[in-house]
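Our preliminary data section would be incomplete without showing what the modeling component actually yields. Below, a chain of 608 amino acids is followed by its predicted structure, encoded as tokens that our downstream tools consume directly.
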Amino acid sequence: MSSAPPRDLLRPDEQTTSLVRRGPWTIELRAGGLENIRHLGLLVLRSVRSVVRDENWRTVPSIVDRVHGAEHHAGSLVIEGRTRDERAALLWRLDISADGDELSIAYRAEAESDFLRNRLGLVVLHSPELAGTAVEVRHTTGAVTSTVFPGQISPHQPAVDIRGLDWVVAGDGRSTSCRLDFVGDVFEMEDQRNWTDASYKTYSTPLSVPFPVPVRVGDVIEQSVVLRCASRGPASAMMPDTPDDVELVVGDIMREVVVPALTTTASTAGSEESPGGGGRAFWARALLVELDPSWSNWPSALTRAIADADGRPLDVRLVADGVDEAGPVLDALAEHPALEIVRIALFDREEGHLADPETARSLLGALDDRGLDIQVIAGTRAHFTELNRSIDRFDSWRGPMTFSMTPSMHDTSGHQLVESIAMQREVAENARRLADGRPLHIGPITLGARFNAVATMPAPTPKGHDLEEGYAAALVAGATDARSEAASLAAWLLASVAALAGPKVLSVSYLEEWGPRSPAHESATQVLSWLSELEGRPLRSVRAPGLTVFAARGVGRPSTIVLVGNLHAEPREVRLPGSEVPIVIGPGEVRRFELPPGAYVSDRLAEE
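Predicted structure:
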């Protein structure tokens, strides 16, 4: 069974995982999904799930009512459930059966209400470890196309018009040939690493088909997938053994990599949620504020952000149809000549949520007209995927760039939250490749999506001129995530900064300053304070398998500050350089150590 995240990062329905065995097959059952599907111990599919996406591409949550056969070692496995939203009421059933080396998964759903959907049915997730692996795509026409699971994050669908896929999984001295057939709809594939999901996803109903689609009471949807595997070599162990303790190996200073500046977003919460004079995130070097001149209360939002900044600079992100519409906000900024603004961007409200070079130059002109000397940045306020798909539009721009990030675009589980860390590293690496030497400011980074970048319906807007109900994310369903209060968020934040830090990454922006979307637990704010103290300090190469380790040269002294975090449900032990006594790092915990100069530096990382 895969290693679980700390318990306070898990939803109640995913805190129990069952292992099902059928002949050569093992499957983990979690929250109604079939996870980590293995054939003779070798991982062949990350997951098979049933999903409902509404007209705004929001995932409609489900609840499992009944599981039958999980405790047996033969016979069918049946999972029955229903959606947890009366506006999109659906009863669904998964029938899973194994016959030797063949695994069949059949899906049947019946609508109990009328609703609009953009997607409904089965999705199959493939491991990102397949990057570069050859795959043959069998099409509905009977044609076959040879391609690969993308290495670099693919901005567009790697495969379309899918009726079947054939590929080979290799590992542990053996290989498994996989043949996957799809029935009931036409499928296609997308690279979910664009949204920090650890998967390539093959999903039903091509995006070329118009959406949303009406679903009527009594409509029945039936789909199935059939996986056949043929293995060569000895069976694999389910999971590698976890060492009792690991050695912390600290290497030399990495070239051109320093601790990025930490910023946060101005609170979008309603006035009644204000902490008054306390609760400010003074670990943040700047306060990012998003303003849309179409909001009736944008002047109040700006005034509060300036007050909350308390002398710290602002990072202003404008959302408008053009520089003329943004004029009143620029005029308001010009009325505060003493206000320091470190950067500013103007994003299109609709098309890709982009701040493209043409818009950036128009913004520069508007700033000059008002006597404002502010650095202008370009990019997108949405996910990396929008930057990935639009990068050719930025050829003429050599200034700083930005994009945002949330781990919960497709999946709100704690497992996805933790799995996103490795994908954040891949996204950052791909972003640096696309930026081609241009500086990066990454963020806002939020647990829940602060706005819906793919909505087909208008975004909610404030009704009054005050901040009684808040604005922006405060009005967006799903933007508030209870895990912002979790103690284990500290380890996640440390891991995220470690994943994103790299050449030309100048700043990263996390959560909100105060309110329900801020890091509420003292352990999280302590970690952010530790990281903020190291801003601009050179990073060292470092390794400790199974743990997150962040090492930077100390401030004002030649020592090295090391932060060690544990994103697992079980305690882990680590041995510091030169010590034989292991130190226990609890689930979700972060520990800080100061290592003296000299003997701790190892050439082992460079050699490996």
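The CA atoms of residues 198 and 419 lie 6 Å apart. The radius of gyration is 25 Å. Preliminary results of this kind motivate Aim 1 of the renewal.
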